């Protein structure tokens, strides 16, 4: 997607490269991110962006291709502009306030943020459009069973990069391998490529097509709603400064599947076998593709109750009759095992 020829770089061991990428820090960056996903699933209610896990990294980009302009400045400034067909969605925060804007809906949401605690990352913008954040979620899944190697070099966004490859051996996961293109100067991941256990084509790829490591100007993170846009200002979040507020999603509008208030996603399990759990998902009145998907889904039952399993080459989803949604880069049986362990 954004890779060029293979450059010649000094040799480096997998452990040395892993240590560098895990400790990489930059004061700011900006650029254009391209992402593509071929998972065969439509958007599912409440699953997107629900966890700091490999599943959360992938389920926020369930299908199709996306282009986003991104900018980050440490410690609490971020902006993501997703370019849809004939529309734009913007999330931005300047350390004091956060905005979510959807040009198609002509609506914007503004939040006044609690005081930021030094050293804590900015929260609220979609992580799936930040290759560094996506990479971190896979790096956090590394356990003793994970094979790590350096599989070569490549050019990404015009920059020389090493290819750090993670190969999980856990039987529960559908992930075949994850390759991080790591910048040879800043050690920041420039691209993440996820391959399924079956097949050779990437299931997900997120990476920069253009990037600058200059700190963006403060004005980059300011937002003024266009004339005629409806602006909503919910009550100031009551979360503690060291706990990030739930991301704002301007697409969560009436008539679309959504979560009931107060039911935030949680994670069952760790590493490659992690499963995202969403409670209180409303599946009634869903859109056509979801109705068709559920109609052809496999009926299953167990000690956890009854439900349907939706499968794809990487993401599998269990939707229970009592409104719970279990999703992950795991086998269908792992989803049912997680459902059996989850308290009702």
Low-confidence stretches: 117-122, 237-262
Strand content: 35-45%
SSE-based structural type: mainly beta
Shape: globular
Cross-sheet strand order for the largest sheet = 7-8-9-10-11-1-2-3-4-5-6-12
Oligomeric status: single chain
Average pLDDT over all residues: 82
- State the CATH class of the largest domain: Mainly Beta
Q: What's the domain count?
A: 2
Indicate the CATH architecture of the largest domain.
Clam
Tally of separate helices: 5
Say which CATH homologous superfamily of the largest domain is assigned: Lipoprotein localisation LolA/LolB/LppX
- Helix percent reads 10-25%
Order of helices and strands: HEHEEEEEHEEEEEEEEHEEEEH
Number of E strands: 18
CATH topology of the largest domain: outer membrane lipoprotein receptor (LolB), chain A
Query: Nearest-angstrom radius of gyration?
Result: 20 Å
Largest sheet: 12 strands, mixed
């Amino acid at each position: 997607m954004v890779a060029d020829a293979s450059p010649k770089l000094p040799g480096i061991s997998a452990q040395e490269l892993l240590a560098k990428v895990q400790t990489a820090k930059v004061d700011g960056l900006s650029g254009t991110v391209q992402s593509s996903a071929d998972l065969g699933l439509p958007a599912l209610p409440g699953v997107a962006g629900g966890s700091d896990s490999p599943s959360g990294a992938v389920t926020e980009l369930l299908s199709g291709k996306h282009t986003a302009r991104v900018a980050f400045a440490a410690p609490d400034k971020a902006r993501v502009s997703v370019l849809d067909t004939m529309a734009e969605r913007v999330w931005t925060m300047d350390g004091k306030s956060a905005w979510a804007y959807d040009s198609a809906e002509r609506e914007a949401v503004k939040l006044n943020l609690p005081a930021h605690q030094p050293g804590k990352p900015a929260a609220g913008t979609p992580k799936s459009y930040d290759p560094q954040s996506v990479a971190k979620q896979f790096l956090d899944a590394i356990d003793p069973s994970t094979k790590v190697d350096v599989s070569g070099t490549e050019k990404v966004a015009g920059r020389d990069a090493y290819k750090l490859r993670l190969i999980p051996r856990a039987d529960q996961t559908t992930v075949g391998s994850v390759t991080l293109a790591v910048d040879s100067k800043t050690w920041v991941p420039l691209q993440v490529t996820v391959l399924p256990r079956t097949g050779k084509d990437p299931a997900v790829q997120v990476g920069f097509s253009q990037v600058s490591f200059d700190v963006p100007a403060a004005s980059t993170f300011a937002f003024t709603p266009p004339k005629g846009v409806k602006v909503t200002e919910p009550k100031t979040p009551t979360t503690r400064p060291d706990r990030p507020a739930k991301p704002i999603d301007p697409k969560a509008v009436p008539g679309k599947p959504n979560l009931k208030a107060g039911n935030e996603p949680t994670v069952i399990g760790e590493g490659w076998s992690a499963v995202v759990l969403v409670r209180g998902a409303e599946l009634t009145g869903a859109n056509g593709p979801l109705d068709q998907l559920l109609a052809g889904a496999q009926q299953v039952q167990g000690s956890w109750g009854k439900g349907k399993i939706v499968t794809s080459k990487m993401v599998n989803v269990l939707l229970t009759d009592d409104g719970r949604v279990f999703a992950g880069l795991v086998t269908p049986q792992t989803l049912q095992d997680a459902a059996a362990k989850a308290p009702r």
